[in-house]
Amino acid sequence: MKYEAVIGLEVHVQLNTKSKMFTRVAYNYAAPPNSLTNPVIMGLPGTLPVMNKGAIEKTITVGLIFNCEIAKISKWDRKNYFYPDMPKNYQISQYDQPLCMGGEVEIELPGPSRNIMGKHRKVQLTRIHLEEDTGKSTHHTLDSTLDFNRSGTPLIEIVSEPDLYSGEEAFAYLTALRTNLMYIDISDCDMEKGQMRCDVNISVREVGVTELGVKVELKNLNTISGVRNGIEFEIERQIKVLENNEKIVQETRLWNAERGITVSMRSKEQAHDYRYFPDPDLMPVKIKKETIKRLSNQLPEMPFDKQRRFLEDYDLPYTITSVICPDKSLSDFFEATVSLYNKPQPIANLIANDLLRELSSAGTGGPLPLSECKIDPQHIASLARMVDEGVISKQVAQDIFIEIFSTGDVPEKVIEEKGLKQSSNTTELEVVCRDIIDNNPKPAEEFKAGKKNAINALKGQVMKATKGKANPKIIDEILRKLMVE
Amino acid sequence: MTNTSSIDIEYVANLARLDLTENEKKKFSAQLEEVLKYFERINEVDVTDVEPMAHAFPVFNVWDEDRAEEGFTVEEALKNAPAKRDDQIVVPKVVE
User: Model ipTM?
Assistant: First the structure.
């Protein structure tokens, strides 16, 4: 029997607002415990929530990039349950009138190889709503401790339709979500910091059957690869259960990344009854057409659209666009450089290879952010121009790159100071070439005997003798001339 | 909520984390039935042409611009906590 998996994702994303969702105390990630609270956050009697307009606009912006229908009127509901990380005993969320409905996310599946673009497809969304995050509990052997810094942080929940069919697709979906959300700068989407969290609903059915199988909820997926691996394990597990003629139990399972398996949580038989009802303390949101228009006008070009344009307009290889385009600041940097010197391909190479390599080795705990490095588009434009004009060789350009990356000097200065200018002085080069031929009789003889690529060994020797400063074209001419004599 | 005999007092008490005596169960059941009866009266009103709304007043967009303000100091935040450790509130071990 053949089986297929059907997967839906609920992705929570913390918005990077300055203040919390329903009160103006600040939020930031690394603050000391319980230093970001106030009477509203601690749920003290008599406090009242006041919406954060910025968080609402950021959520609408997310809806716009994913082609959701934006609600005309949206309201707030209380989701009631008891848990110590939530002092009010209810979470303010949105039940039946979320800010965004429907929508779709374009994803790219892995191609046949790294340098070939994979298939693109649109994953359907159910809704996107806005709510407040809870505090953070840490469980110890004998007790639990609570930090309310995270409590009340604006949190969006992006709910997909059961429209994903493998771990690989879920991985592509999360990658696309993250890239898109970072493009509009509404979140840093760091899964390890809990800024992006993902719950998975997954069921398996026989191919050809239209109803969904029994759904299992998967939690504790803390990295994008964890989501993929957890799903792949769970699909296999469910298929085995069905093949053994057993029944799949509706339950919540936790992904254990160290052991590479999912483990059943003690399942509560009684379903949660959250008794949602409209929050009497909060008036609804009315979204005007002008607001949607203003936010739409601020949208940047989105990553896949940019990639299609880069492929088309700059004729860049797919591999390079797939490195540059997912990062908005890198793409902007590339285009700023091309506007200074219109040679997209060598510039893209310098950025995708040299710049990214130096950024990743300069950073501690992750690559150095582009904004903090000393290289600007002018540096790269000058380097590319000087290689084109024969002032320096490609090899020297790479060496200079490393130098200017650490000093921030203009390349011209380094070339001048270190005497790295490519030599096109034929008289000087002739002396060097003659020397090399005399000292390497074997390749010279071979060349004369008709083995034309023996000349490469000699060229290499000349480059070494001139420390890479010789113009390769001129060396070629001189060597040939000398050996024909 | 149309069926007035639908109060399951055990369930309601459990949701509210209340431990009720038999007498209390009886008393509160009766009282809650009364409340529900009152809603029955509201249900009699014909609202065919009325848009559902979350509030009685047509007031929208009561919001603040996104700006950060000072909140409690850590000491203030923990003042009411019966037990604390490492600037966090200590509670009995919670396992979902």
Answer: 0.88
